[in-house]
Amino acid sequence: EELKRQKREERLEMIRNNKQPHEEGAKRKRGPAKSVCPYNKALALRQMRDEVLGTVSDIEQLLKLGRETHSCPYYSTRLAIPPAQLVVLPYQMVLHEATRRAAGVQLKGQVVIIDEAHNLSDTLSCIHSAELTGAQLCRAHSQLTQYAERYKSRLKAKNLMYIKQILFVIEGLVRVLGGKVGSNPQSQTTQTGTEMFTINNFLFKGQIDNINLFKVLQKYFEKSMISRKLGGFVEKYAGSGVSLHTPSTSNKENRRTEGLNRYLQTLQSNQSTAPDQQGSVEAEKELSVSPMMQLEGFFKALTNSNTDGRVVVQLNSSSVKFLLLNPAVHFAQVLKECRAVIIAGGTMQPVSDFKQELLFSAGVGEERITEFSCGHVIPPENILPLVLCSGPSGQELDFTFQNRDSPTMMDETGRILSNICNVVPGGVVCFFPSYEYSRQIISHWEASGALTRLANKKKIFQEPKKANQLEQLLSEFSRCIQRCALDSGGLTGALLFSVVGGKMSEGINFSDDLGRCVVMVGMPYPNIKSPELQEKMTYLDKHMPRSGGRSPGQAMIENLCMKAVNQSIGRAIRHRGDYSSIVLCDRRYARPATLSKLPTWIKDRTSTCTTFGPAFAALRKVRIKFKNVQLIHTFVHLFLYSVHIMFLVLPGKKAEAGVILLLRAQQTSSPFLHGAT
What we know:
Blueprint: H1 2-19, H2 42-54, H3 59-69, H4 73-80, H5 91-95, H6 97-103, E1 111-114, H7 120-127, E2 130-133, H8 134-150, H9 157-176, E3 194-197, H10 199-205, H11 213-224, H12 226-237, H13 251-272, H14 277-287, H15 291-301, E4 309-314, E5 319-324, H16 328-337, E6 340-343, H17 352-359, E7 383-388, H18 407-423, E8 426-432, H19 435-448, H20 450-457, E9 458-462, H21 470-486, E10 493-499, E11 517-521, H22 531-543, H23 552-569, E12 580-585, H24 592-595, H25 600-603, E13 607-609, H26 612-649, H27 653-667, H28 671-676
Parallel strand pairs: 1-6, 7-12, 7-13, 8-10, 8-11, 9-10, 11-12
Antiparallel strand pairs: 2-5, 3-4, 4-5
Helix pairs in contact: 2-3, 2-4, 8-9, 8-13, 8-15, 12-15, 18-19, 18-20, 18-26, 22-23, 26-27
Subcellular location: Nucleus
Main location: nucleus
Organism: Scophthalmus maximus (Turbot)
């Protein structure tokens, strides 16, 4: 009875304390918002929604309409999603459940069309992976500590508990990176290398396995929206000169986190002193991202199944990354909700791993899959795919990692390009397997004089290091080819050096004279020594069946290579009247298993040349044939141009109709024919 009475008195004391006024920092209650966005008014949003549903508009037109109706284009289009019959959006928004839910996109009973789906598996893995750096841990810990200190009198006890749990997890992540809470960073040993953990082992390593991440995410991150609040808190007080620390801060708490903060600051300073320009760009990008958003994403990633992912710890760069190994778990929900899913793309081959990794693993039966593939619109004679097994001097082309660095192999590649530039007019695009090999072989050509010989036939361009320089380079490349087509000087066009998987291997169109020949040097296999790729191969070998005598991991490596090749060589043929040659420089392309992974419309027309002579003759034959065709088109164009002039002189409506028709014909002519006129 005495114990019950004591507990009852304690509860009454707590109630009385809660009724007492708060301290000075918390007297003022949150008042109503003083200002709201003038473009976020319900009536105006509904008005613009109706306008959006009435006509098809692009982004620029929506922005103009938003100014006219004084409403927000973003929220108006979101209101238009439920009644819309067709919604066009980035497929990342469809594949990520949280983003899909936030945008109000409902998939149940719908038909989903995913275009350019050749990298669907990589996209799923990317958007469901998460990475945290030491600098982000530093900022997240600092911001959350200051936020809790400033509003501790307003925050509920349960919310303070969640904040302390988050701070505890951050400290655990620091321990995984090699830091020690409360120790001087100068006395800590510097570790290097890469470590791979399962999710459970990673939680044990950081001593955070006792934290219920599901509860922290659902009860605090999602309900309180702390990531957004903390972003606004930082924007409000950062750089304002207001001290966020109060005198009541516990000295014990300061001592406990002092070593952690010093260690995190060393991580931040080490990352901010990157010598190259790329590092500074990445640092700026990192600072623009909310660290709490990144932390929330990493927490969500850690709630995946233990077998579906791995945690990669980069000790030398002070970063932790969650790597998703099974993208089918996230694609399965899309397949389950939708009435039908159409997965389309121009370079989907090879599709075997795609079906196995994304469809069969998601529980889709073979009877539900309908596969359709069609040919290309161009005539068969408009494309010349060649597999080149040896060069002009008879040197066998074997660009394996052991042989490609030899001076003999690089000299032979230079001779091949020189011969191609002699017979192919316009633009030639040469793809190398990596940036490192591109720099190495170009440096060798500079020293040997091969680059000078190439420059005597075509002006040389190289893929820029910065993405913002790409548009300017392509404009100069195009203008150079047009000038060379009109000028009968020594230059016959331009030669562009690019890299597979780089800035020009996807999304760039080298149509007509911009890409009369595409040269692929070697086979762009990914780096199999990468710990992440090795873990992916191990996962596939364990969970996927063998096919064709090869392990699933080996098949994935080959498929990644050939998908990159198909994307690169597909840059050239862009319309019905286009023509181009494709030269695959490596004897390994002649293997039947490799040829079968080319697009059908290319594979059926591919010729394998064991010596260079037949390949050179075929390239020359194509040049002569289409040169005669272009001459005929030029004479016809000149004739129509003279008729056009006569129509301008003659009066009458028929003459005007003829002028309009001919002007349209001129507009649809190729740049080469228009320049010749």
